From TrEMBL, chain A:
Organism: Pseudomonas putida TRO1
The name this protein goes by in its record: DUF421 domain-containing protein
TM regions (residue ranges): 29-49, 55-75
Membrane topology: Multi-pass membrane protein
Protein family: Belongs to the UPF0702 family.
Keywords for this protein: Cell membrane, Membrane, Transmembrane, Transmembrane helix
Cellular component GO terms held in the UniProt record: plasma membrane
YetF C-terminal domain segment(s): 78-145
Keyword Oxidoreductase assigned: no
Domain YetF-like N-terminal transmembrane: start-end pairs: 12-68
Superkingdom of this protein's organism: Bacteria
Family matches, as PANTHER family: UPF0702 TRANSMEMBRANE PROTEIN YCAP
InterPro entries recorded: DUF421, UPF0702_alpha/beta_dom_sf, YetF_N
Length: 147, 168
């Protein structure tokens, strides 16, 4: 019973923490982000398993995490408001070649971040060539160029 | 300009700006909450800090216990007991309470001259030198979550009671 509660508690706690961190935080994984993610995993692992390193305990923890994760995605399928609450919306940050600075600030994005995405995905040189830039729900920046 | 940015767009994606603003506010408030948690943790809210270090002295001043007011389940905590006795003569200390029942004693230093059980309690006999002060250093570990109480006695007038709260 212990390990089930541990896993469930950790799932909820991590979900809240990553929601606070925002969708941008680990979207474009730099080397440092990757290391950070590993450390977070390491810190989580101890609390998840406790001192019980048995096969059964590991399976129980994994099963609990999968049950919660699949359960949540099923719940999201059935309830649109819940899906909106948990996944958020895509947000426009560039409209017809014009930066929406207020939104960018709130989403912790700089002009350079957007231009970098534009160069990377569309080979765009300057902002006038961008029709729309959208922060997707997973934190990636989509670029729609001017035709 | 800023007003315009707060309006929800329909094309190329359906936006919900009031909701998005709540999300952003949640992120901002959450960040401050995390900063507060980190600062409080530094201060010892979760153990090992000024907020958590505590000591109690018995009414007659003979027994003094240094303990952790707040701690976490599964970590080791130290308990430092000093007893004033008669110089050169052994002194008896009695430890009891849920703290000693639910936690396992990992180390006990120095080795008491004698140790025995006394009902629910443990009785230790410690030697003293010229100054008549005996010290006992224990490290305890418990998987318990919640409050654990302990008491140390060296006579009817020399008793201290303390409690430790263990976070999960």
């Amino acid at each position: 019973m212990d390990s089930i509660l541990r896993a469930a508690g950790m799932y909820v706690a991590l979900m809240l923490l990553f929601r606070v961190a925002g969708r941008r935080s680990l979207a474009d994984l730099t080397t440092f982000d990757f290391v950070l993610l590993l450390i977070i995993g390491e810190a989580t692992q101890q609390a998840l398993l406790g001192e019980d390193f048995s096969f059964t305990n590991a399976m129980l923890v994994i099963a609990t995490l999968i049950v919660l994760d699949v359960g949540l995605s099923l719940a999201k399928l059935n309830s649109k408001p819940l899906a909106r609450l948990l996944d958020g919306h895509a947000t426009l940050v560039v409209e017809n070649g014009r930066f929406l600075h207020h939104r960018m600030r709130r989403a912790r994005l700089t002009e350079d971040d957007i231009l970098e995405s534009a160069r990377d995905s569309q080979g765009i040189e300057n902002i006038e060539q961008v029709k729309f830039a959208i922060v997707e729900r997973n934190g990636k920046i989509s670029i729609i160029p001017v035709e | 300009m800023s007003e315009d940015e707060l309006l929800s767009r329909r094309h190329p994606v359906q936006e919900d700006m009031p909701m998005q603003q709540r999300v952003w506010r949640f992120e901002r408030v959450g960040w401050y909450v995390l900063v507060a948690i980190v600062l409080l943790a530094l201060a010892g809210l979760f153990g090992n800090g000024p907020l958590s270090d505590a000591q109690v002295v018995s009414q007659d001043g003979r027994v003094r216990v240094e303990y952790q007011r707040l701690s976490r389940s599964g970590t080791t905590d130290s308990l430092f007991i000093t007893v004033q006795g008669i110089p050169g003569q052994p002194v008896e200390v009695q430890l009891e309470g849920s703290l000693l029942r639910d936690a396992s004693i990992e180390t006990l230093q120095p080795e008491p001259q004698r140790s025995m059980s006394h009902g629910q309690a443990m009785l230790f006999q410690l030697g003293t030198k010229q100054d008549g002060v005996a010290t006992l250093y224990l490290t305890l570990r418990s998987e318990h979550v919640g409050t654990l109480k302990g008491s140390v006695m060296a006579g009817p007038e020399s008793a201290v009671h303390f409690s430790t709260f263990l976070y999960p």
